[in-house]
Write a structure and sequence with these properties.
This protein is mainly beta and 510 residues long. The chain folds into 4 domains: 90 residues, Sandwich (Immunoglobulin-like), CATH 2.60.40; 110 residues, Immunoglobulins (Immunoglobulin-like); 178 residues, no CATH class; 82 residues, Immunoglobulin-like, CATH 2.60.40.1930. The protein contains 6 helices and 34 strands. The protein has an 8-stranded antiparallel sheet with strand order 23-22-21-19-24-25-26-27, with helices on both faces. Strands 11, 12, 14, 15 and 16 form a 5-stranded antiparallel sheet that branches. The longest helix has 17 residues. The chain is globular, with a radius of gyration of 26 Å.
Length: 510
């Protein structure tokens, strides 16, 4: 009976086949040769793009070895993304992406790539091999293998994506062949966006990544280069101290440890990322050690963070601290579990953060505890994720714990004070929405009171608007910008506060 009913329904209401969200064309065309050195690179889709989703995930979505971009934008119908670029002679290029989203909600989750060259032919060599699931159980199909020109596991002090050199999609049987590879030294990695959120984030427990040792292409192709996926398990404080202690030996001799932090901690006291923050050179400079689920590295601290942590007492004996597991167990019993289980809106995320410091400039304020001592501090918080790179606490419960035993000494009331918590670092966030027409919001944070300016410039460097130009107290600010008087195009906004300077790009699209 069901079979006949289905037949009748199909006759009366035939299935309408909807075209999949897909790439229609590229400029230059795939495998194009003799491309002009100054040219427009574009990708056209069969649907309008969700530009907000794309811009929020841009660094994790797009991969390319183009290193000189003049401007970028979208067509009026939002079906074409374009970049005007300056290329180098006789060089092979690629542009690929792992994720793309349409305004309809449709997504492209199979990696897409196209190649072109400014020479008469492509670079002659290839790198090939197999991507293996390892213990992850994640199938390699749908992943991409990329060659970088730096070791991203030891890329100190550099922001943004690493310099990419070449790319290949992984086949259904796990094999890959990267074409158009020039002579040089490379570091291979394989990535897969398992949860299809447009980001490569192995810390989420779903996405996977594989790192390979460096290779040298020298007038010959490389074969049988196998890469094995791995997932990253968060670590307790005691599990990372040996690594941090070893890396600290490479820091300046006059280093002083001021603060230790753990983010996104679980109820076993394990964090995805531990940071050890040092000052040196008479507290005028700073270095950080990060031990995370993806590896470990050292990097230079920004000046705003240095100015804050230099006021904290030195931490001299962190190896004798109570285990993070013990601290969290004590906090759970002292009210942490009750707070963790409180209902909260879907717009908020629950997070646990840890720190080791004297806490006099931390979460507790002047509550009468002995700030000459070093403590464990734990924050159970409900967090609003404003953008990919920006979040703030809505409410929380904070616990001051004994450094050596982990026993809870002090609990701060559940509600965060009405005033905005003082941020730990300078930051200038990507404007939202972007592209915009004609209004957008620009958010920034400053950890200390400073003369602060926020100015808008056009492509030629001409100042077109001044949004802030005054002394501002430490805090987080959202500044609206109305560009109704300006033509469509690329603009830059620059934040200056004390010695901190940062500039970001935004697109006005009418």
């Amino acid at each position: 009976m069901k079979k006949y009913l289905l037949f009748i329904l199909l006759v009366l209401f035939p299935v309408v086949m909807v075209a999949q969200f897909a790439v229609v064309s590229t400029l230059p065309a795939n495998n194009a040769k003799n491309v002009a050195l100054t040219t427009t690179v574009s990708v056209t889709f069969n649907e309008a793009l969700d530009t907000n989703a794309i811009n929020q995930n841009q660094e994790d979505t797009w991969f390319t070895n183009i290193d000189s971009v003049i401007s970028e934008g979208y067509s009026v119908d939002l079906k074409t993304a374009t970049v005007n670029v300056v290329l180098k002679p006789n060089q092979s290029y690629f542009l690929g992406f792992i994720f793309m989203k349409a305004k309809s909600g449709a997504v492209i989750t199979t990696p897409y790539v196209f190649y072109f060259t400014t020479g008469a032919d492509f670079a002659p060599y290839t790198v090939s091999g197999t991507v293996l699931s390892g213990s992850t159980g994640v199938l390699p199909e749908g992943s991409a293998v990329i060659l970088t020109t730096v070791n991203i596991m030891n890329d100190e002090g550099k922001d943004g994506p690493p310099p990419f050199a070449a790319w290949a999609n992984v086949n259904s049987n796990g094999t890959y062949t990267i074409p158009n590879v020039s002579n040089g030294k490379y570091w291979p990695l394989a990535v897969k966006d398992v949860n299809h959120d447009g980001r490569i984030n192995p810390d989420n427990g779903e996405d996977v990544i594989a790192f390979g040792d460096s290779i040298i292409v020298n007038n010959a192709s490389i074969t049988n280069l196998n890469l094995t996926f791995t997932k990253f398990t968060p670590k307790t404080f005691q599990e990372v101290t040996t690594i941090a202690d070893s890396l600290s030996k490479n820091l300046p001799a006059d280093k002083v440890l001021r603060r230790i932090s753990g983010w996104n901690v679980d109820t076993l006291g394990r964090s995805q990322s531990w940071e050890f923050a040092y000052t040196h050179n008479n507290n005028t400079m700073g270095k950080g050690i990060r031990v995370s689920t993806g590896g470990s590295n050292t990097y230079t601290l920004d000046q705003g963070y240095i100015d804050w942590i230099k006021m904290l007492n030195p931490i001299t004996n962190y190896l004798s601290a109570a285990s993070s597991a013990t601290v969290i167990a004590n906090v759970e019993k002292a009210g942490g579990k009750a707070f963790r289980l409180l209902p909260h809106p879907d717009s908020l995320e629950f997070r646990i953060e840890l720190s080791i410091a004297d806490q006099k400039y931390g979460w507790f304020g002047p509550f009468g505890f002995d700030t000459s001592k070093i403590y464990w501090a734990v924050a159970y918080t409900h967090v609003y994720q404003a953008t990919q790179d920006s979040s703030y606490w809505v409410d929380g419960k904070y616990f001051l714990c004994d450094f050596a035993t982990g026993a809870v000494i002090l609990t701060q009331p559940t509600r965060v004070k009405e005033e905005t918590p003082i941020p730990e670092r300078f930051s200038l966030l990507q404007n939202y929405p972007n592209p915009f027409n004609p209004t957008t919001n620009i958010r920034f944070t400053i950890p200390v009171s400073n003369g602060t300016s926020l100015k808008i410039y056009d492509l030629l460097g001409k100042e077109v608007a001044v949004l802030v130009n005054e002394k501002r107290d430490a805090g987080e600010y959202t500044i609206p910008f109305n560009a109704a008087h300006l033509p469509s195009g690329i603009y830059f906004y620059q934040l200056r506060s004390g010695k901190f300077v940062e500039t970001k790009k935004m697109i006005l699209l009418r």
